Amino acid sequence: MNIPRHLAIIMDGNGRWAQSRGLARVKGHERGAETVRDITTFCANHSRIERLTLYAFSTENWKRPKLEVEFLMKLLERWLKNERDVYLANDVRFEAIGDLSRFSDPLQRTIREVEEATLTCKGLTQSLALNYGSRDEIVRAIRRMIAQADPIDEAHLLRALDVSMEVDLLIRTGGDQRLSNFMLLQAAYAELFFTPTLWPDFSTDELQSILTTFERVERRFGGL
Ligand code: FPP
Known about the structure:
Layout: E1 6-10, H1 14-19, H2 25-44, E2 51-58, H3 66-89, E3 93-97, H4 105-117, E4 125-132, H5 134-147, H6 154-160, E5 169-172, E6 191-194, H7 204-215
Parallel strand pairs: 1-2, 1-5, 2-4, 3-4, 5-6
Helix pairs in contact: 2-3, 3-4, 5-6
Bound molecules: farnesyl diphosphate.
């Protein structure tokens, strides 16, 4: 039986969820943040899932209207401050991945504070991808390898990435069937699941049903 040790999710569809209700797109992000909490808590209580990586803000998302970007930054900061106690209560270690240097100093500080506060949590690790793009991650990894004079091989490259653990199961909500520059190396052998459900509507029941399907998949990793 397959259990994903590392589950990665592209959380898509917040804007459409809001627009279909006559609401501003940002309302969808607010609701999406609630789904993040539900799914994280579910995974924290699932004894075999070790890491949950969520695509929250991509290197391309800066191209969105200024107001939406500003809203997302504020939401993130407010949400992280509130979430600290939820992480602790669920024994979740929080970790941000991506190039954080582009964020404001207060947001960077909040991220570091929550990372430090949850450092000793031993249950699930939630990695939140912020200003993350796989290509950017690979470039930063190669720079790191050169600076450390690492041997250029697959093992060292994986180790130099923001997340070294391979993804077992990758889910994308919102109906599109693409990876959008997310976990390209880590997902080399991942099973991919695409659902039309918009992220704010994605439920723990649907996740459970995807996990049940995943349990039965035969994973060959290039072998027979
Ligand atoms: C994609 O929906 C979602 C995002 C670009 C941001 C993801 C953000 C959240 C889930 C909420 C904030 C997260 C945290 C952790 C506080 P979209 O806007 O591309 O939706 P669309 O495809 O319908 O336009």
